[in-house]
Amino acid sequence: MTVSAAPNSIRRTPGARVSVAPMMAWTTPAQRYFMRRITRDALLYTEMVTTGALIHGDTARLLAFNADEHPVALQLGGSEPGDMAHCAALAEAAGYDEVNINVGCPSDRVQNGAFGACLMAEPARVADCVAAMKARVTIPVTVKTRIGIDNQDSYAFLQTFAAAVRAAGADHLTVHARKAWLSGLSPKENREVPPLDYARVHRLAAEFAGWPVGLNGGVTTLESAAAQLEHVDSVMIGREAYRNPYVMADVDRRLFGHDATGPTRAEIVAGMRDYIGRHLAAGGALKDVTRHMLGLYHGCPGGRAWRRVLSEEGHRPEADLSVVDRALARVEPEFEEAPA
């Protein structure tokens, strides 16, 4: 099957060329603010938020983000077109740059809610969600999926799914280059055990030329991201961007064409001080923020001491910015701790 070029109405989210993947319990507002101190251009995603939580829960809290996070996308979990359209409208009203449909998470909890990776088996339902959302919002509506599920892992299966969401008006498809096992593997194992099949995503991108197709899974360096961008329209970097966030420090120059080099690690920490201060003043705990900063000095002399100070002292109720100062003194020889 040959697929014609995508319509001219397709909109690209700013920063979509390279993004930090949505990750449950990881890509919180604090993490996104921290990541934005590292890269100004890469697209950031929220954790997955379910339609039920948005409709019946604390909507304002769930949609809250800092203006500095732009470009930022809300990832939605759901399968009812009306609910998805309503929540997409909430996302647009809140100021998000994109709304993304999760068709990749394999957890039991997500399956019990009839969304996530199990929706790959229902391309018409996902297409209905896309169409309903596109009818309500002007921001890009995108989809993140897998190359297959269980024993439904042929290229034709992926191609059929992609064709359905494209025809419904999806602006972008990102494919995690591993299939998902809906039973027998934990979510963690589903991120590691099924083999990566980049060639299948490359084939899809070539066949759907003119419609943006991106790749996720196993990309750990800017060099490998650049190599993938020879075959696909965009690349997501996930766990590596969290474990070793400084991997993103040169992305604006390397992959977005800016002249300036990225910030130093010390500059990134300095850029977090006001945010941490505001968070503490509002009654938040230091660890809410610093847990996302543990990997900043990954691989550096003193990096273990940095993590140890933040981990051991950051959870204490009285922990404040002096903990960050003590941690920084372990890795930046020229930094002097503020006097007590």
Automatic annotation (TrEMBL):
<keyword id="KW-0694">RNA-binding</keyword>
<feature type="binding site">
    <location>
        <begin position="22"/>
        <end position="24"/>
    </location>
    <ligand>
        <name>FMN</name>
    </ligand>
</feature>
<dbReference type="InterPro" id="IPR013785">
    <property type="entry name" value="Aldolase_TIM"/>
</dbReference>
<keyword id="KW-0819">tRNA processing</keyword>
<comment type="similarity">
    <text>Belongs to the Dus family. DusA subfamily.</text>
</comment>
<dbReference type="GO" id="GO:0000049">
    <property type="term" value="F:tRNA binding"/>
</dbReference>
<feature type="site" description="Interacts with tRNA; defines subfamily-specific binding signature">
    <location>
        <position position="188"/>
    </location>
</feature>
<feature type="domain" description="DUS-like FMN-binding">
    <location>
        <begin position="20"/>
        <end position="319"/>
    </location>
</feature>
<feature type="site" description="Interacts with tRNA">
    <location>
        <position position="191"/>
    </location>
</feature>
<feature type="binding site">
    <location>
        <position position="75"/>
    </location>
    <ligand>
        <name>FMN</name>
    </ligand>
</feature>
<feature type="binding site">
    <location>
        <begin position="238"/>
        <end position="239"/>
    </location>
    <ligand>
        <name>FMN</name>
    </ligand>
</feature>
<keyword id="KW-0285">Flavoprotein</keyword>
<keyword id="KW-0547">Nucleotide-binding</keyword>
<feature type="binding site">
    <location>
        <begin position="216"/>
        <end position="218"/>
    </location>
    <ligand>
        <name>FMN</name>
    </ligand>
</feature>
<dbReference type="GO" id="GO:0010181">
    <property type="term" value="F:FMN binding"/>
</dbReference>
<feature type="active site" description="Proton donor">
    <location>
        <position position="105"/>
    </location>
</feature>
<keyword id="KW-0560">Oxidoreductase</keyword>
<feature type="binding site">
    <location>
        <position position="176"/>
    </location>
    <ligand>
        <name>FMN</name>
    </ligand>
</feature>
<feature type="site" description="Interacts with tRNA; defines subfamily-specific binding signature">
    <location>
        <position position="307"/>
    </location>
</feature>
<comment type="similarity">
    <text>Belongs to the dus family.</text>
</comment>
<feature type="binding site">
    <location>
        <position position="144"/>
    </location>
    <ligand>
        <name>FMN</name>
    </ligand>
</feature>
<dbReference type="GO" id="GO:0050660">
    <property type="term" value="F:flavin adenine dinucleotide binding"/>
</dbReference>
<dbReference type="GO" id="GO:0102266">
    <property type="term" value="F:tRNA-dihydrouridine20a synthase activity"/>
</dbReference>
<keyword id="KW-0820">tRNA-binding</keyword>
<dbReference type="GO" id="GO:0102264">
    <property type="term" value="F:tRNA-dihydrouridine20 synthase activity"/>
</dbReference>
<comment type="function">
    <text>Catalyzes the synthesis of 5,6-dihydrouridine (D), a modified base found in the D-loop of most tRNAs, via the reduction of the C5-C6 double bond in target uridines. Specifically modifies U20 and U20a in tRNAs.</text>
</comment>
<dbReference type="InterPro" id="IPR001269">
    <property type="entry name" value="DUS_fam"/>
</dbReference>
<feature type="site" description="Interacts with tRNA">
    <location>
        <position position="102"/>
    </location>
</feature>
<keyword id="KW-0521">NADP</keyword>
<dbReference type="Pfam" id="PF01207">
    <property type="entry name" value="Dus"/>
</dbReference>
<protein>
    <recommendedName>
        <fullName>tRNA-dihydrouridine(20/20a) synthase</fullName>
        <ecNumber>1.3.1.91</ecNumber>
    </recommendedName>
</protein>
<feature type="site" description="Interacts with tRNA; defines subfamily-specific binding signature">
    <location>
        <position position="304"/>
    </location>
</feature>
<dbReference type="InterPro" id="IPR004653">
    <property type="entry name" value="DusA"/>
</dbReference>
<dbReference type="InterPro" id="IPR035587">
    <property type="entry name" value="DUS-like_FMN-bd"/>
</dbReference>
<keyword id="KW-0288">FMN</keyword>
<dbReference type="InterPro" id="IPR018517">
    <property type="entry name" value="tRNA_hU_synthase_CS"/>
</dbReference>
